[in-house]
Each structure stands twice: as structure tokens, then as C-alpha cells.
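Handoff note, outgoing to incoming analyst
You'll be picking up this chain. Sequence as last confirmed:
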Amino acid sequence: MNDPTALPVSTPVSPPVIKRHRLATRVWHWVTVVTMFIMIGSGIGILKAHPRLYWGRYGANFDTAWTTLDQWPSWLVSLLNLLTIPTSYNLALSRRWHLFFALVLAFALLGFMIVSLINKHFQRDLRVRAVELSPREVVHDVKEHLAFRFHDPKRPGAYNILQKLSYVATIFVLIPVMILTGLTMSPGMDAAWPWLLEVFGGRQSARSIHFIAATGLVLFIIAHLALVILAGTWNEVRSMITGRWKIPAHPSEDVA
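Most recent structure output, in case you need it:
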């Protein structure tokens, strides 16, 4: 006989799944993953051929460099040796890999930008609104990240302000700067577009800015990977493969 005083047993409810990433975003993401891995490795090989960076139009062995490879920590140099493409010293091959995948990066970025303007991905998802830049909102988002809460339960598919700023800086600043400074280091491009040398203050300054932008991209990749792991590796990677993302339970929604 049923006990009328017994509490009803709740049926577990599967977390809802939403469509988070469009096809163009997913394709561009994975093309960029492969491209950046090879470009970083081959770029290290090019840097090791002359491990000194200068400001200005000219720079050679006896000129004052603002940084050199032998000033860096030994653990970092060992890590760079592991990432170098190819593993043995071959400047010509490093350049070929670097320049080929630079073209892949540039045209992939151009295609992604065109499609994202057409499907309104930029306007809808990455547009930074003035209210989001208020100190109160930024501090709130930082606190949420420190508490490992990476999405708004009211708008789970929306990007938070830290995501928007990092993606906008990467897509519209760091990668274009990398491409333009890379072109500035090409004598052929200097002949066709001499204004590039004026914009970046000379070939050696362009090389230094190229290195700084590359460092910024590496830091972004490290932070991005760390947040993917903290937010749930499989869920995040699956969303970038299939486009479908399972909304994680928010701490305030958990039942004790």
C-alpha cells in the first residue's frame, strides 16, 4: 500500500544542450590550432638563427639588442628547443613552414571575418557594450572566474566581458599585427608597400613587434587552455567539434 506521507522521488533531469558555435567558427578554430602550432615552432627556429631583437631600422651582432636568447631562463630555452620546427637547425625549412602557414592563417582569418560579418557573429556575440566595460561589471566577471563560474545562468550561451575582450584583442589586434609585421620583414613587400616600414619604424622594430605579438598569442593560448580544462574539457572540446554545448549546473542551482 502506498504511503501518502512519502516524499515524491524527483526524476533526474539531463542538463540542457544548446547550439553554441557555428560551423564557420569551428572550422576556423581548428585550422588556427594547427596553423599556430606550426607557426610557433617554425618561428622559434627562425628566432634561434639570430636570437637578438632590436629597435629601429637596422640590427646586427654588434648592435645593442633589447633582448637576446641567452638572457632567458634555461628552462624556457629548453622548452623552446622542444617546440622548434624542425627539431634540427634548418633556417630555410623553418622559413618555408612559417611562410606557408602564414598564408593559411591570413586567408583563414579573412574568410572567418567575412562569414562572421554576414552571419552577424561579431555583432551578436563579440560586440563590446559600454555597460560591460564599467569597473563594476569587470570586477564582477573577475570574481566569477575566480569562483570557477564561467557562464551566466540566465544567458548561458553568451560570452562574458573577459572572453569578449580577449577574443577581440586576438582576432582584431594580435593576429593582424602579426601578419602586417611579417609582411614588413619581407624585402619584396617593402618594395611594393614601403609605407609598412614607416608604420612599424623599420624592419628590426617590425621583427620585435612580431615577437611581442607572438608572445601575446602564446599567453592567450595558455590562458585559453587552462580555462577549457577548468570549465570542463570534454564539454568545451565537443562544443567546438559539433557546435553543441551542455549547460553546466550553476553552483546556485545545485541541490544539496
